[in-house]
Amino acid sequence: GALDTFIAAVYEHAVILPNRTDTPVSKEAALLLMNKNIDVLEKAVKLAAKQGAHIIVTPEDGIYGWVFTRENIYPYLEDIPDPEVNWIPCRDPQRFGYTPVQERLSCLAKDNSIYVVANLGDKKPCNTSDPQCPPDGHYQYNTDVVFDSQGRLVARYHKYNLFEPEIQFDFPKDSEFVTFDTPFGKFGIFTCFDIFSHDPAVVVVKNFEVDSVLYPTAWYNTLPLLSAVPFHSAWARAMGVNLLAANTHNTSMHMTGSGIYAPEAVKVYHYDMETESGQLMLSELKSRPRREPTYPAGVDWQAYARSIKPFSSEQADFSGMIYFDEFTFTELTKNTGNYTVCQKELCCHLSYKMSEKRTDEVYALGAFDGLHTVEGQYYLQICTLLKCQTTDLRTCGEPVGSAFTKFEEFSLSGTFGTIYVFPQLILSGTQLAPETHYEVSRDGRLKSRSGAPLPVLVMALYGRVFEKD
To answer: Does the keyword Signal apply (predicted)?
Structure first.
């Protein structure tokens, strides 16, 4: 019963948040709020199933939000068993105690014959013989669950890389590599901040060879380099897998940006800072992309950059900050040119041609080679061309939303010391550039290919050096 293609769905959900309280609410009040969110998710599941979707992904924190302390989230948690128990909660709801949310999600999957992916909290008792057991006698995990089209629990994943503000959850002792097989390919699953790390994100792709990754997230966009849609689509491309990314929707926290991404193309995405409503997306994907003739060839990320001499320039470099990292920048002073900027081991080369050099916009080429230390520690090598916020060079690296300068030609490359490089090209209005207008060459250049003038906001090669974390 293997399928060559399948229809994927993701739902960006505007979460109904609980009121902040000093003390935990009752189990009944917690369930009432969770059911309000599941009522909304149910409509999306039914609509997706009607349109032929085989699987739907809903966001991280999508059932109860994120405004919790460790104590306050407790009434929202359920005991989620290991899928090896072979359990359909919809048929046998009492088997593992009080599990109304798992029962409802299981019935949603079963009644609509669709795989349902959701994120909720798992609680696991522990005792004093375990030296890591928290004082309150249980672990609390940020958890993804997958129910198959019969309503069976087929996957449970405990988020390994918690984001710094997630004080309500515990770190699992070890990273879990969760995969499962379907008639439409092999799937892996992880959550939000996990995408920055080697474990589990790289491992499920490289070692377990999944075809598609399920990715619930609650991602707040931080331009210029960490906006959800550009980063996630670049990750799918570089890692050579389908990525089904479902983000929460909350414009006050800059949370938006969901999509369905294939290795060779962005299939569909949604970015909306104007409204407060959720959005369902569907797209057809290849079940086993590695076997396809369109599967992207491997890239040697330093081949071109190491083969050329650095471009010489009379002008002085300057430094600037992007998300707490100090970049070395050089200004693009003419409408056409070649520049090199270096930091430590990394040299970034840019050749470009603008339609015209505007006096009201300034662009800079930047390099960063170092350890990022805020909200997590991870080693980065980044080459980026970006529009500065104003014509004052001190604003280079600050967020900016629109651009009028058009680039007709560009080629960006760097002397990377890693194979994990994520190429991004963001246009005015935080829109993605269509694949027809650019390519990633096998020798590691992000370059133009249509000659069409593009209003570039940010162009980046975002490298992760895991062994230096």
So the answer is: yes
